[in-house]
Amino acid sequence: MTLHDLSYWQAKAAARTFDGLAYIDGTFTAAQSGATFPSISPIDGKKLADVAACGAADVDLAVIAARRAFESGVWSDLAPAARKATLLRFAALITAHTEDLALIETLDMGKPIGDALAFDLPETAKCYAWYAEAIDKRYDEIAPTPHHVLATITREPLGVVGAVVPWNYPLMMAAWKLAPALAVGNSVILKPAEQSSLSALALAKLAEEAGIPKGVFNVVTGLGAEAGQALGRHPDVDCLAFTGSTAIGKRFMAYSAESNLKRVWLECGGKSPHIIFEDCPDLDAAALSVAQAIFINQGEVCIAGSRLYVQDSIYDAFMEKVASHAQSLTPGHPLDPTSAAGAIVDEQQMQSVLSYIEAGTREGATLRTGGKRANTLTGGFYIEPTIFDCTDQKMSIVQEEIFGPVLAAQRFRTEEEAITLANDSIYGLGAGLWTANLSRAHRLSRRLRAGLVWVNCYAEGDITVPFGGMRQSGFGRDKSLHALDKYSDLKSTWINLSR
After folding, report:
1. CATH number for the 273-460 domain, one of 3.40.309.10, 3.40.228.10, 3.40.1010.10, 3.40.50.150?
2. Rounded CA gap, 156 and 167, in Å?
3. N- or C-end of the chain: fewer Cβ atoms within 10 A?
């Protein structure tokens, strides 16, 4: 057996056990109440572990520990080079444990093991290493004041940072927040999604091994309505970074207003348009990109190209190509390295996606392919890649984020119509367009109301490039040096040199 075989991963899965304890102040611990919730694998519907269901009391303990660690200076006052060395060890440990962490991600939330190995884990380790290297390469400033004054502008860590992350890319989304926050010198409290808590707890063990001091890195597991809300409302949390739905993001804004006006950074929902013009330089490449943009990771991607707009003259031929590619992205066993797609994260999400598919048919959309639950004999949660031909922009499958493998396609005739349709959304996360016309590419990139625009490609990215949205997709940017500003304050110090 090799890591390219299903049997290899099934054997590793059978041998892997979990304890489900939260990680607070350097100790793995049960919830104060003793309550737990089950972690169910979407692969087969079976329980993986009982996880500590932390509440307000546990969050309070984590905040106290994080504040104590921050004020002690054990991390916040370390020389940048020392923090850098610790985070580089952390990144190296993540790389060394890639197989185990990838297995946990797949078991816990259903993504294909091949994707976890090839993308999620390398990107996670790279993120920590990149911010580690950035620590000692940013300089403070001296303002151009009169000669009798010295005015310095310095960046200081905020203090206690809470990070509430989603279940679709659990480790990578956590890294996008924790890495810059730790690099600056903050103490952090990670609240993973209840559907995908296990990899966060494995990460805590590696943080401890890397030498991150106790209290600086905490993992509070629990339900969003309890642990997540308690973190959002806590009066001694200085910053809350969130990735998830727009509805929950709005709640965190309210929690901030109701508590201590903690700054809140939101990366929320998306309903990203993917526009194909008749002068597309490569229709085959575009069709493959369209299919991958919506069906990779079972459509559980915030930037998924879930709205497709194709110029009328090429619509029919192009949609045949997309449907053909969709067939190659049908869900297989998540532990099979050859599977192109896996399981929907849990039964509730599966039922939500299926209800949207029913709504699409009811509202008059034409089902081109898919539309059914798949792999039903496994006991897991799988849905076929689904494509609808739509004629009404007001359909729920066109307007609402489904977060599953459902593509809503429409025709357009003119460039102006394409822009109008693409911008007709409350969201503004991603957008893609395919054209050989350089002027059009520049013109439309500016007019598309999205934080991320791709031309003749889709969902490309790098740790050096900011990631985030506009409108109800949130604000603030993950990735790049810009993310460091989210977790630090600017201090101006004015020194009169004449006295």
Report:
1. 3.40.309.10
2. 31
3. C
The domain 8-268+474-491 belongs to what CATH superfamily? Aldehyde Dehydrogenase; Chain A, domain 1 (3.40.605.10)
Given 267, 300, 401, 415, the catalytic residue: 267
Task: Enumerate the domain spans of the chain.
Answer: 8-268+474-491, 273-460
Q: How far apart are CA 24 and CA 220, in angstroms?
A: 7
Of 415, 402, 328, the closest CA to residue 359 belongs to 402
pTM above 0.90, yes or no: yes
For the chain of 499 residues, list the mean pLDDT of each consecutive stretch of 10.
Answer: 90 96 98 98 98 98 98 97 98 98 98 98 98 96 96 97 98 98 98 98 98 98 97 98 97 98 97 98 98 98 98 98 96 97 98 98 98 96 98 97 98 98 98 98 98 98 98 97 97 94
Respond yes or no: is residue 302 known to be catalytic.
Answer: yes
**What pLDDT, on a 0 to 100 scale, did the predictor assign at position 181?**
98
Catalytic residue among 54, 302, 384, 401: 302
DSSP string, 249-310: HHHHHHHHHHTT--EEEEE-----EEEE-TT-S-HHHHHHHHHHHHHGGGG--TT---EEEE
Position 427 scores a pLDDT of 98
Tell me whether residue 320 is one of the annotated catalytic residues.
no
Pairing of strands 22-24, 430-434: unpaired
Q: Would you mind telling me the total number of residues written for the chain in this entry?
A: 499
d(CA 383, CA 331): 7
CB count in 10 Å sphere of residue 283: 16
Residue 481, judged by CB atoms within 10 A of its CB (0-12, 13-18, 19+), counts as middle
Q: For residue 473, what is the DSSP state?
A: G
Distances (CA, A) of 488 to 29, 161, 412: 30, 10, 45
* Type of residue found at 471: R
Tokens of 141: 């400033």
**pLDDT of res. 145:** 96
Tell me whether strands 366-369 and 373-374 are parallel, antiparallel or unpaired. Answer: unpaired
User: Using an 8 Å Cβ cutoff, are 261 and 235 in contact?
Assistant: no
